[in-house]
Amino acid sequence: MEEKTKAYKNRGELVFETLKREILDLELKPGQMISENEICERFGVSRTPVREAVRRLQEQGFVISVPYSGTQVTLLNLNNIKQMIYMRVAVETMVMRDFVDIATPLWMEEVRYMIRKQQALIQEKGFEPEQFYRMDAEMHAIWFRATDKMKLWDMIQAQQLHYTRFRMLDFVTETDFTRIIREHTELFELLEKKDIAGLERSLKEHLYYSMKRMKHQIDVEYKDYFEQEE
């Protein structure tokens, strides 16, 4: 723990960053209660840095204070997630249009390389879904970087409270990673052909697929992870 602590300004920041990552990676589940005593014991710190970390998590919406119960990880908001997917489809479609116009062989090779890395990863025994999630994000970021639109990509990635956790749940419950790679390969081939109409259709299906695939999980298995819609 001492070596980890050195990487952060203070113990409060270490606790904050660790809990935030665990919430985003679904190690701490939506709706789960967090005990201050357990955190103190786990990190070997006093209540002061723990309370500071919890306060920052509350300010950013990752946890809420429940009277007479303690601190709870916030639930996912399905309407927020649907709007984020809608926005991402709209923005990324435009970015990919721009990418088609400037995609050099070198940029295309970056996309091809990321797909190969994904193919290699799923051959690894016991690979973690979050590893695939990071590679997936790296690949989509390529056309934003190539078109000098990284500010937009960062804004999309910043929607972590609901959207990032939903994407992580998507990968945690995915049983066919080869399907995702096939879709990525299709995007690559459409980029090569400069098929704008095909790209827009394929990207929309790709980004919305998880909502369709997970309908049963959202309604039944992981119902407790989501705020109940009015």
Automatic annotation (TrEMBL):
Family matches, as Pfam families: FCD, GntR
Presence of the UniProt keyword DNA-binding in the record: yes
Ranges for domain HTH gntR-type: 9-76
InterPro entries: AsnC-type_HTH_dom, GntR_C, TF_FadR/GntR_C, Tscrpt_reg_HTH_GntR, WH-like_DNA-bd_sf, WH_DNA-bd_sf
The keyword DNA-binding is assigned to this record: yes
Signal sequence range: none
SMART domains tied to this protein: FCD (SM00895), HTH_GNTR (SM00345)
Top-level taxon of the source organism: Bacteria
Assigned keywords, A-Z: DNA-binding, Transcription, Transcription regulation
Full protein name: GntR family transcriptional regulator
Species of the source: Hungatella hominis
Lineage of the organism: Bacteria, Bacillati, Bacillota, Clostridia, Lachnospirales
